[in-house]
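Agenda item 2: magnesium ion complex prediction
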Amino acid sequence: MSNIVIFGSQWGDEGKGKIVDLLTRDVDLIARFQGGNNAGHTLVVAGKKFILHLIPSGILHKNKICLIGNGVVVDPEVLCKEMATLAGEGLDVGPTRLQVSKKAHLIMPYHRLMDGARESARCKDSKIGTTGRGIGPCYEDKMHRVGIRAGDLQDLGLLRAKIETALTEKNVLFQHLYNTDPLDPGQIFDQVAPLADKLLPHLVDVSQVLQDAWDKDKSVLFEGAQGTHLDIDHGTYPFVTSSNTVVGNAAAGTGCSPSRMDRIVAIVKAYTTRVGAGPFPTELDNNEGAHMQEKGAEFGATTGRQRRCGWLDLAVLRESVRLNGPTELVVTKLDVLSGLKELKICVAYEYQGQEVGYPPQEENAMDRVTPVYETMPGWDQDISDCTSWVSLPSEAKDYIKRVEKMLGVPVSMVSVGPDREQILHR
Ligand code: GDP
Ligand code: IMO
Ligand code: MG
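Presented output:
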């Protein structure tokens, strides 16, 4: 049985959720390993849409076990709400099916407030455009070693003491830097502690659960969130999220060996989008960009913000290949390109008088690159009802083959619509 890792190769929203849902058929467990409810993974099954922020996208399949690893930051209020919503849809989200690492850090109300205060305090050009979910401040506390972990819910005395410690420093910032009211540790405790009863039955040692599963020859799918170019180290820093989104973190973020990863699947949107601020060399501010935005319904699944759109960028993808070593590519949203007369692919950048194949490493250098484009003919036909690779227009096949050739990684599937069934196998 092979284990699969799925990751986003661009700036997020590549369609990971749909492909996780699809490949869940082939595995027994699905594990998130980083990020939190900044993610918005959309699944469409028989016309019905589900958006998951924290719970792994395998949850729609009965009998599959969903794990939230230690590398994820968990907002307990959001988790309880998401569980209630899915339960309302008749899905089983009981402790057998949904298990959370005791070591996962909890997003506390003050992390959300700090996220908002920091963004408000930044001047216009340096705003990151975070999702406002408290992700960065929670990871900061983890690194600062004052974080609160899911396992702390087992000892409410400890929880209370840790909230007090965390707020000692934060209240100084809230009051004297951000000019907001200080927070009362007692009130925060009263807000969070009642959730313990609901969450305690779900808490496990995810590393051990994985080991036990592998001892029984079961297989696991690791579900990445965000995208490689939002990675805290390798992305377009500082316009990034606060976790490592690269597949190397699938091991650290769940507690297993990297040698477990067999099949590494890069999700590649057929064009590029970005939500939030930061450099975007192939961004389009014209009719073609508007075509992608409208036809692709490019609105953030978490914040509802309009996504910025642009041509496919192979420099970005080449780096994703180098960082993650995918064994295959899945290209999504090819249907969105139908109707564009010509398609451009950015094959390199001009940077400081030279042609470069990878994003330059200096901070904000991506703001100063000029894309070098190759142009390919487009196609007119609606391909959303195509059911096989051979039935695609030749121009669409050529576009995919070009990407495959330039990246040196095979394309195993092409998605031509949001529904689970709208997928073409090579
Ligand atoms: P994720 O965060 O990577 O899971 O992606 P999102 O769910 O945020 O955004 C992808 C959007 O595209 C969702 O609305 C999906 O339903 C939709 N989608 C996924 N694959 C396709 C596709 O092949 N064609 C079209 N038109 N939409 C797709
Ligand atoms: P999925 O998993 C797209 C972006 C935010 C912002 C930056 C930092 O659905 O692909 P954060 O709240 O994480 O501190 O925000 O990262 N961002 C995403 N963009 N898809 C996502 O997740 C994202 N998660 C965070 O818009 O620019
Ligand atoms: Mg998304």
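Discussion summary: Residues 4-100+203-264 form a domain with the Adenylosuccinate Synthetase; Chain A, domain 1 fold (CATH 3.40.440.10).
Owner for follow-up: CH.
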